[in-house]
Every structure is written in structure tokens, then in C-alpha cells.
Amino acid sequence: MQYDNDAKQLKYRVLKIVAENEFNGTLEENLEQIPYDVIPGPLPEFRCCIYREREIIRERVTAARGKTLPHQAENGIVGVMPAACEGCPISRFTVTDNCQRCLAKKCQAACPFGAISVTGRGAYIDPNKCKECGRCAEACPYNAISDTMRPCLRACPVDAIIMDDNKQAAIDYSKCISCGACTKNCPFGAITDRSYITDVIKLIKSDTPVYAVFAPAIEGHFGSANVGMLKAALRKLGFTDAVEVSLGADATSYHEAHELVEAVENHTKLTTSCCPAFVDMIEKHFPKVVPYISKTASPMTMTVRYLKAEHPEIKVVFIGPCIAKKLEAQKVMDTADYVITFEELAALFDAREINPMDMADNEQDGSLAGKNFAVSGGVSAAVAQVLEEENIELPFTCVKCNGAVECKKALMMLNVGRFKDDMIEGMACEGGCVSGPGGVETPLRLKKNRTKLLSDADQRGIVENFKNHDFSKINMEQR
To answer: With 0-12 CB in 10 A as exposed, 13-18 as middle and 19+ as buried, what is 12?
Structure first.
């Protein structure tokens, strides 16, 4: 696997070498050697010295083994690697050479904290007094004050990134929703997610039957490999069998459509529940909105429960582009036993020299609408399709929130009783799950691949597919 992002490439290299060693049963004995294998020296590859680079690799190995990083919460999904977090500017606002040493001194007048003084060489911002309010930058008529907010701070939609006493990034887990925006936007790859690949490898090497269930977003992330090819590749990797989670998406659509009917009839509101980061945003930041969260189980949970009703002895691993699904696996009962991302799956495939494109199978588990759960607007479209297929006349309005920022705005309106529509579809990733932080393909290639693959999907209906599978034995509610 070759990424166009060096930070992501380094993460992949570590995941792959950890996977190779775990498959070979040599991981524990080679732990100290891995940093030297990745960074042989004597010259550094990407940071100041090989010693720091090797420490970064050690921290990456810690995360790849599912262990807790320094200062990471015991159950925290994302964590900061201290050795990697040092490249960002400490002071957010700095005066550039554009400063004209003007007489008006509007920047100084705008600062309520007395942090700005004007010298013969121009304005100066005292970092010990600056509170980063940004008023000076707004006031300067020459745009001479640069705003260099750390990318992780800018990316986090819930202000969960803070600075510790050493001016390094830290995570406030009381606010964090595990969306992974910080992991995706840190230019140094200093924030990463906890991986469970070693647990999954141990499981598929055991005598326990293990099923893989993969997110609808998978089509397009592994070239032009279709669902059948991916299933065959997963079986070759060691899984007993594999199932497309779009099947569970059909069940979610069916149940949530009827839940929406009840909500509209009772003149109340409904928010979707399939995005765990969106649900966590509600629970941590808008507790008054919690009663409006759909009680319908997510497609992942629906699929897992369906399989375990038929095969109680199995373990199930969910595979998707979403880091927050690892949070859902912790919070929801009777769901996936482990969660890994597409980038972790790519490392597993490469560790065993498996190419899904070499497979020849072709099959489908879910409807086209179920597959489109992976894109923004797909959930509400599927709900509307269920109502149409069942001839239920229910005019309803839905705000389709494309990304965490839009989710936050809609929830703020609902929180204060000013939300006028019937439903909020919330997806924390812009574009939907296909753009999740654990994906492997670039947006342009993903769109091209996915368009071709979905054009080959059969036209089965949601209700038809739901009724052809017996979901009557399972609890279809999230908790």
C-alpha cells in the first residue's frame, strides 16, 4: 500500500510490521528490534535525529498493540504520541513583516489583555499575556498578524484538544467524541487511534470461528474490488466468513422509518443513531437532546446480532473507515467484539500478501440504499425509501448534517427548542463514512471506483431484503 501522505505511510509501515510479527508469533521477542527495522539509520528520515524517530516508532508500536499511550485514558480511542508532537508553533498569533508600524495602533487598542506593545520594529505580542482571542488580527488594517492555530485544535469540532504544561497537545476525554478529525489533520501524525489488530490476529489464529463484517463504505477503498472479492480475501486472511454491513443498514432503515412515523405522529423530533461520534456529541455536549436520539441499533450492531443469533459461538470483527466505531464497541452491548479500520485491514492484507483484486467472487448482501448509508444523506434517503416501499404517506423534513460542524449547529438549534424540522441525520465526517479517518483511498479515486462498483449492484428493495432475512430473533434497539 502506497499513500500520498508520509505520516499515514509511516503508520502503515508500523501496522504492517507488527502484523507480520504477530502472524509469525515473533512480536514479543522483536519489540525492541522494530524501531531499528523501520529506522535503520544512521541518517534520520523525517525528524531531527534517528533517536527521536525511533521513539516515535516505539510509541506507534504501543498504539498498534492496543496499549495505552502516555496520558491516554485507559479506554480512550485516540491518544497523543509525545515524541511526535513538537512541530507546531507555540504562539497562535504572531506579527509578520507586513506590520507598517502605523500611528493608529489598532491592534494594541483592540487587545483587552495588554499583550501588545509597539516597538521601533513594529508590534510585538507577549505570549505570556496573549489569550488568543484574535481581536488584534481582526483589527489590523494590513493583515499583518498571522493566525497559526494548531491543526489539531482547528480540526476538533468539540474543543477537546488542549495544551499541557509542556505546550504539547493533550485530549480532554470528557469532551472527545472519538471522531478522529485530529488524527486525520495532524501534519506530523502525532495523534493516533488505538489498534486491535494483534487481538484480531490472535483470534483468527485460534480455533474460534470469526466473522468479518465490513462497512458499506468499503467499496472503492480497495481499488475496483467488489464485495465478493473482498469477502474471498477476508476468508483467505483467516476469517471463517464475511458479511456486508449494508444488510444491517437495511434493517436499520426499516426500524428507523417506523420510529420516525411514531415521532412525527407524536410531534417530537428524531436524530439518527448510526454515527457513534454524532451520538457521543449529543451525550457529552447536548444532554437535553438525548431523548431524541433514535433507539434503532446501528448497521454494525444489527449485522452482528443477526449473525450471533444464527451462530452464538462466533466472534465478530467490524471493519470500516471509522475510528468512533471502536467507541461504539465499548458502549453498546451485543455488538462487534473488535473493530479495525480499512488502513489496518490493508496492513493485514499486505502482511499476508493478499490482494483482493486477485479474487473472482461476486455477491451482494444489502440493497443499494444500504450501501449508500456510507455517504451524507444516505440514511434519510433510505428511511424515505422504506416509507415509499410500504406505501406510508408521511411528509417529513430532515436536516442532513454533512460533518461535525453542521451537526453541532443543528443540535444547538434543537437544544434551545428552535429546530423546525422533524429529523436530523448526523454524520461527523464530511461526505459521510466514506471519508472516515481510517480510510485508505484518495477522494478522487474513491469516487471513481465507487461509482463503477455501485452501478453493478442489483436493485433489490430495502423492505424486500429485510423480510428475506429473519431479524425477528434480535433486539433491534441500540441498547
So the answer is: buried
